[in-house]
Give the backbone structure.
Amino acid sequence: MNYRPLLVAGTLLISLFIGCSKQPAHNAWTTSDSIIIEPGVSVGPVHSGMTMKQMVAKLGEPDQKRDGIFIYEKLGFVVQPDKGDIVHMVFCSGPGVVFSNYYTKPFTGHTKEGVGIGASRAEVVQAYGNPTSTKSYGSKSQGETIIYDSLGVIFSLRDDKVCAIIVSFKS
């Protein structure tokens, strides 16, 4: 009996199933551990100038989408577009931090300088110098915001530790 036609058909079927079994893009991004922030430029695969459609192609569909905000709960960040549907801002949150009523797991990535959630105010200033401006909200336990306009990044602090990182991209 000639098995060659069956072998060829079997090989074609296997290659067809392998080609069709692509996993959704964001399955590769199950945590934010390896995500590096480059202020004003990128948060991992999300970068300045990227459309929201391109972002979804890289990360997969968000866990939630409300009021135009894309919520990636497992990655610990929320993405907000500008009016042109271009990525405008990425809000990386720490434990117990809420962005406009959107909850996520804590963001575990960091900047290329090593600043992440839990870094001290001194570590932020050591990495980036004196901020453009700061805003305090009562005591240190209530919060402080350190703003670096030229870099496109804001660090929110509570008890002198970074509890959120907001990266904004120029439109």
